[in-house]
Amino acid sequence: MPRTLTWAALLSTALLVTPGAATGTARAADLSLSVDLTAPTHPISPYVYGMNFADESLAKELGLPVRRWGGNATTRYDYRTDTTNRASDWYFENVPGDNPDPAGLPDGSETDRFTDQNVRTGTDTILTVPLIGWAPKERAKACGFSVAKYGPQQSTDPWAPDCGNGVRPDGTRITGNDPHDTSVEIGPEYVTGWLGHLGAKYGDAAHGGVRFYNLDNEPDIWFSTHRDVHPAGPTYDEMRDSTYAIAGAVKAADPGAATLGPVGWGWSSLTLSGSDQQRCAIEGCWSNPPDQAAHGGLPFGEWYLAQMKAYEQSHGVRILDYYDNHWYPQGSGVTSGDPGDAATQALRLRQTRTLWDRTYTDESWINQPVYLIPRMKDMIARNYPGTKVALTEYSFGAIGSLNGALAQADALGIFGREGADLATLWGPPAPTDPGAYAFRMYLNYDGKGGRFGDTSVGSTSTDQSQLAVYGATRRSDGALTLMVVNKTSSDLASPLTVTGTAPGGTAQVYRYSGANLTGIVRGPDVTLRPAPAASSHGTPSAVVSATYPANSITELVIPDTVPPRAPAGLTAGRPTPHGVTLTWPRATDNVAVTGYEVGQKSAAGTTEIATTATTLTVTGLSPGERYTFWVRARDGAGNHSPKSRSVSVTTPRR
Fold first, then answer.
1. Beta bridge partners of 582
2. Are 346 and 271 in contact (CB under 8 A)?
3. What is the pLDDT of residue 505?
4. Which residues pair with 632 in a beta bridge?
5. What is the rounded CA–CA span in Å between residue 534 and residue 538?
6. Mean pLDDT on 158-183
7. Per DSSP, what are the bridge partners of residue 509?
8. Which pLDDT tens digit goes with each residue over 449-462?
9. pLDDT single digits (tens) 410-452
10. What are the tens digits of pLDDT across the range 373-408?
11. Alpha carbons within 13 A on the beta-carbon side of 130
């Protein structure tokens, strides 16, 4: 959940940098966009378009790829009684779930119903499993800090006045409370039982069951969020040992399931254990954190990854699949639901640079470059190659406003370009919110399932702070999709050069902007003109000239009109009197090749047979006849290659 408020107050070295003024508008000549289809590419993971707790109607419409059950309340949850502890979010209370059939538990629990929705919408599930070692003791209301037991407190639940916030009237925290007031101890056996229940009901991960498991939620700040049962921040060693136990139990119960950890709250989680975060917030030991010093001075994330690698080397099992860290930009007002004033809105759009830009100094108490996704990838490369990158909570705020939608569209483009593997938005939009349209631009821009491409291509802007561009080709039909985000309050005209495609075609235009906040508008097609000779360097290139309205998201869809190459190497086997088997290599020059047409010519005429295979046994031939065959490749857009080199056979007589 967002952590700009209380956490910043804990940091004795915090320095908030006042956002600068907006950069102003650029003349058309100052801006240019380019996409290079000849540059290296990489796949875009569909899981970067995920959400936490998305509405079923929106999830179904979008074909939402992944949906997470997470947050503070999931750290202490018992599927057997369908009861959560709401931790510091709500007076450390145990709250039984609103369950229509408690007698039927564990069937029909909150997590069963969550998974049921995902099954209905074809969405993969992330569930949170506990590392904390505690779960609600029974299906009944209970308070972590009872006023009757621990005395008066600064705040109490207005609907349950015996449940306090654990802070005395003088501002000191209550310590020494009994965790058993709300909770009982649990361990790996709890996870084994839970996954057994889920597997029996939904199958294992390899057969349509729950695919992902978060290894708890923001454990490095349990000392704040769950201090009634875990008042001390977890150390390096506790995080290693609890991960070994719980992730090991997950893998033993469902070897095909993927695990995500350590699920840190944000910036400090990359370098500090919970123990160091807690202690240094009080003592100011940031330059020499004691837990870090006791572990060779290694930043926590680096050490954690190395420990996960050591486990695999010792046991032959990978128990960490995704390195997961939450991200809430720390700039003042950015993660608020309120878009804020003009300066805050400009800051929100700049703060997407924290995801990737090594030159951007974060405008908050962090006050240094973050470049989160490349940083996490670098940490993985040094310590545990093969681990994927996840952000199972993030938010740039104001998802109900156009400004928030622009930031969201920018973030989704960055996730694909930078090669993140999974991301789930915290605080999902309502279907009518502008933020929902940011997702629609990538997952359903035309209302008919039209999706942004799945292979990222090289895309650059001369000024991404004004016009950002993201490009991807689509395997299903070879189309090139280009997302352009105008982050300014002015209309901006810019040429967009596409290297590696021929001029003469057209680009479809889909746009979301302040002109219509209730829908994506299909604009007039634009023409691909020849690029200037000086910019093509002998490679086919085209230019799209367009004006991008102020505060808008524009998607250009350029259909694939380039036919695949003719298949090479067609061969014919030894014919029989009535048939022959033809084979040819699979076409590899065009990722959108979806099938082939095999031509046959004889004295009786010419026919073609469609197939998706690279071998075909032709039957119904006549003995003693000569037949000539060729093959053409067909791509997803319906383009056909030229005919291959032909081969001829004469069927033997009886």
1. 572, 616
2. no
3. 85
4. 597
5. 9
6. 97
7. 523, 556
8. 999 999 999 999 99
9. 999 999 999 999 999 999 999 999 999 999 999 999 999 999 9
10. 999 999 999 999 999 999 999 999 999 999 999 999
11. 29
CA 341, 347, 348, 353: dihedral to nearest 10 degrees? 170
Confidence tier at 591 by pLDDT (50, 70, 90): low
pLDDT of residue 538: 62
Query: Which residue has 């102020």 as its token pair?
Result: 550
What distance in Å separates the CA atoms of residue 425 and residue 109, rounded to the nearest whole number? 24
Give the chain's length: 654
What is the model's pLDDT at position 9?
39
Q: Which residues pair with 42 in a beta bridge?
A: 456
Mean pLDDT of 110-129: 98
Q: What do you get for the CA distance between the two ends of the chain, in Å?
A: 79
For the record, the structure tokens of 182 come out as 């709300």
Q: What 3-state class would DSSP assign to 297? A: coil
Residue 371 to residue 162: CA distance in whole angstroms: 45
Q: Which pLDDT belongs to residue 13?
A: 26
Contact between 193 and 254 (Cβ < 8 Å): no
Residue 22: how many other CB atoms lie within 10 Å: 18
Residue listed under structure tokens 């875009």? 44
Of 22-31, 246-255, 294-303, 364-373, the least confident:
22-31
Tens digits of per-residue pLDDT, 607-631? Answer: 999 999 999 999 999 999 999 999 9
Nearest-angstrom CA–CA distance, 276 and 278: 5
Q: How distant, in Å, are the alpha carbons of 126, 248, 269, 448, 586 from that of 211? A: 7, 16, 25, 27, 32
CA 582 to chain centre: 43
Cβ contacts of 258 within 8 Å, gap of 6 or more: 205, 211, 212, 213, 321, 322
DSSP label of 322: E
Return phi, psi of residue 243, to 5°: -65, -45
Residue 350 CB: number of other CB atoms within 10 A?
23
605 close to 627: Cβ distance less than 8 angstroms = no
Cross-sheet strand order for the sheet of 142-143: 77-78, 83-85, 93-96, 142-143
Task: Burial-class residue 654 by CB neighbours within 10 Å (0-12, 13-18, 19+).
Answer: exposed
| Cα distance between residue 150 and residue 173, in whole Å | 11
Determine the Cα–Cα distance for residues 46 and 604; give it in Å rounded to an integer.
50
How far is the C-alpha of 264 from the C-alpha of 595, rounded, in Å?
46
Separation of alpha carbons 331 and 267, rounded Å: 12
Q: Are strands 455-461 and 42-43 parallel, antiparallel or unpaired?
A: antiparallel
Distance CA 645, CA 511 (A): 45
Cα–Cα distance, 567 to 493 (Å, whole number): 42
Instruction: Tell me the longest C-alpha to C-alpha distance in the chain.
Output: 105
Q: Tokens in use for 67? A: 């949906």
**Which pLDDT score, from 0 to 100, does residue 27 have?**
46
